[in-house]
Amino acid sequence: MCTLEKRGDLFILTITGDDEQHRLSPSLVDSIRSALAEAQSKITPGSALITTATGKFFSNGFDLAFAQASGSKSGFIDRMLYQVDYFKPLVADLISFPAPTIAAVNGHAAAAGLALALSHDYIIMRSDRGVLYMSEVDLGMTLPDYFTTLFRAKIGSASVRREILLAGRKVKGAEAVKMGIVEAAHDSEEKVVESGVRMGAEFSKRKWNGEVFGEIRKSLYPELCGVLGLVCKMAVASKL
């Protein structure tokens, strides 16, 4: 459901999924977390992570088919809530990951798929196709607390958050750059991944200590870390 490739100091995590929409089912979440754990076990100073996916979608959110298979409204709700809880540790993994992280968003990133992208330090996406979209207001579903906290932490503009969360606006690449959600937009999947690899390679040259980097990141988002159950700690790897 996902692959992990090591290129020098860079780790390339590619979501393949069981379906072309890369729905974040419990099994896919397990696969991504396993790949992150493997990468983390091999991190050295200068490591960086690039996450991407194959095909038209980066991720189209939670697995609705898994929820609908319950056969009842109450069962659907229970299974959706289960997925909400199951996805939370993956967000925590990325927020605490001991290296720079880049989401190379190859296509649509919707709902939990957008939350997955935002859990990275940087986002690069396509300008020729693909949108960022929070579908909850259109579907009639509220947001988990860690989703809204993530959006407050990662998107500084209140008006942009309003457009995405309250208006359900579908944001394309060039517009996402102007809104400050993504770093850059490129006109093909290949160029998006190449851009992510170039950015990761620039970070690698700095030979940062991963533990220090991860702790500085956590200190930037105290409210988010509180909701995720992450604790900040001192880390010293001085070169002085």
TrEMBL record:
It is an enzyme of class 5 (isomerase). Gene3D superfamilies: 2-enoyl-CoA Hydratase, Chain A, domain 1. Its EC number is 5.3.3.8. GO terms for biological process: fatty acid beta-oxidation. It comes from the Eukaryota. Pathway: Lipid metabolism; fatty acid beta-oxidation. GO terms for cellular component: peroxisome. The keyword Cytoplasm does not apply. It catalyses: a (3E)-enoyl-CoA = a 4-saturated (2E)-enoyl-CoA; a (3Z)-enoyl-CoA = a 4-saturated (2E)-enoyl-CoA. One of its GO terms (molecular function) is delta(3)-delta(2)-enoyl-CoA isomerase activity. Keywords: Lipid metabolism. Belongs to the enoyl-CoA hydratase/isomerase family. PANTHER family: ENOYL-COA HYDRATASE-RELATED, ENOYL-COA HYDRATASE_ISOMERASE FAMILY PROTEIN. This is Delta(3)-Delta(2)-enoyl-CoA isomerase. The lineage of its organism: Eukaryota, Viridiplantae, Streptophyta, Embryophyta, Tracheophyta.
